[in-house]
Every structure is written in C-alpha cells, then in structure tokens.
Amino acid sequence: MSLITLSFTLGFVVIAFFLSMWFKLGLQKDILIAAVRATIQLLIIGYILKVVFHLQDALFSLLLIALMIGVATQNASKRGKWLPHAWIRVLLAITVTEVVTQGLLLGLRVVAPTPQYVIPISGMIVGNAMVASGLLLNRLHSETSSHRQEIITILALGGTSKQAVYDYVKQAVRASMIPTIDNTKTMGLVQLPGMMTGLIIAGADPIQAVRYQILIVFSILASAVITSIVLGFISYPGLFNEFQQFVLSDSPIKK
After folding, report:
1. Phi and psi torsions of 158, nearest 5°
2. Domain of 213?
3. H-helix or E-strand containing 21?
4. Same domain, 9 and 90
5. 105 and 149 assigned to the same domain
6. pLDDT tens digits, one per residue of 48-76
7. 46 and 89 belong to one structural domain
8. Rounded to an integer, what is the distance from CA 43 to the centroid of its chain?
9. Which pTM does this prediction carry?
10. Which of 38, 47, 82, 144 is buried deepest, with most CB atoms within 10 A?
11. Is residue 138, in this structure, part of any structural domain at all?
C-alpha cells in the first residue's frame, strides 16, 4: 500500500470528526488525538519491530514484551484506584498470563521462538489480558460495594473474608470473561478476525490463515480466563484491613 493510498483513509477520521460535530457529541478533540496518537505509535513500533526482527536478539524481544506489559498494567490499573496497590496486582496477573500462555506455545513448539512470532502473539495476549483486568476491577468494585451489608453481616457472623466475598468475586470473574467468550462464539460468522484478514490480504492461503487465527483465538480465550481468575483472587484481600474488616468505600469509582 502506497503512502498516497494510505492517506485516503484519513477520510474515515474526517467522517467521524464531522459526525461528532453534527450531533454535538463533543468528541472532536478526542477523535483527533486518538488518530494522531495511533499513527505516531504505530509508526514508531513499526520501525522498532523492523530493527528487532533484523537483530533476532531475545533480549530486545523481552524488553519489548516488558514494555507492553508495563503499558497494559498502567492502563488497566486506572480502573482499580479504589484497590490498594492495584498496579502490582494487575502486573502480576498479566505477567502470569503472558508467561503461562506464551510458555505453552513455545514449550509445545506451536510457534517458533523468533521475534516475528513471539512479539505479535504476546501483544494480542497482553492486550486481551489488559481488557479483562479492567473489566474485572470494574465489576468487582460494583459487586462488592452494592452488597456491602451482606458482606459485613457474614463477617459479623464469623465468616472469613473469602467466604464473605467469594460469590461476588466469581460474578466479577464471569463478567470479565463474557466479552471474550461471546467473541469466540461468533468468530467466523459475525466477523473475520484481524490476523486472519491481514494474512489473506497479504496473499496467504485462507486455510493457513484460519489455522493461525485458531491459534490466536484459543490463546486469547485462555488469557482472559487466567487473567480474570488470578486478578480476582489476588485482589479481594485488598477489600479488607488487617483485622478482616471490610473497608471498601461504597462511593463510585473515580474516573
């Protein structure tokens, strides 16, 4: 694709901009900032990946994956301002997800241990783990704050902190996995996924593209489950103090 052809896609941004203006949505600034940031970030990562792929150095690959995890942690932990040390919990959950998922892919030799495979797949895994983390933290706050009296009652009757919030943690975990599960159910019917579409556009055999997409779909499904469960069960202790008292405020989450 030439730069001239690519420039024509700015028309989509212009359409979004003027629709926001026409309906007075007030999103014009955000649309422009998002378009500019996406362009700059993608260009930068494109040149970085070109260098990393050329060097074939595992250290640079690990550094790039660490950067992905760091950015994902920073973004997802914003949803957990109510939770003490939320960023540490999110960092641990996303790191565990990446290590387990990518470790299985490499250990079973499903993919080759080269930057061309490891980095893009890690990006998809970490990105999905970030979304699952944000959803989990939002729902956990909602569930526990809205059932504050029930939790306090269970504690007053001698129940442990785990017994008091276990059902609400499960509900939060389930809710954070639903988008990924629903997306998996409709894969190939409602949408043709990005990786598969990209391979087909690049001229790959559709069957081969489907095989790679199945690999990604299953990895993403596992990443959502692992992230949600790990983050859910390392986050709920933060709802209590050292005396096992429920300390979560029932005020809404600050944006």
Report:
1. 100, 5
2. 57-239
3. helix 10-22
4. no
5. yes
6. 888 888 888 889 999 999 999 999 999 99
7. no
8. 22
9. 0.84
10. 144
11. yes
SS3 125: helix
For the chain, what is the domain count?
A: 2
Q: How far is CA 222 from CA 36, 112, 159, 203, in A?
A: 33, 20, 32, 29
Give the pair of three-digit tokens for residue 156: 């007053």
Tokens of 88: 């540490």
> Is residue 134 one of the residues assigned to a domain?
yes
Identity (one letter) of the amino acid at 208? Q
75 within some domain? yes
CB neighbourhood size of 251 (10 A) = 8
Q: Which element (helix H / strand E) includes 38? A: helix 28-55
Give buried/exposed letters for 197-209 (b at 16+ CB in 10 A, else e): eebbeeeeeeeeb
Same domain, 51 and 66: no
Residue 187: both structure tokens together: 């894969």
Pull the structure tokens for residue 159: 């129940």
What is the chain's mean pLDDT, rounded? 90
Is 128 in contact with 220 (CB distance < 8 Å)? yes
Residue type, 9: T
210: confidence class by pLDDT, cuts 50, 70, 90? confident
Which of 94, 150, 82, 104 lies closest to 127 in space, CA to CA? Answer: 94
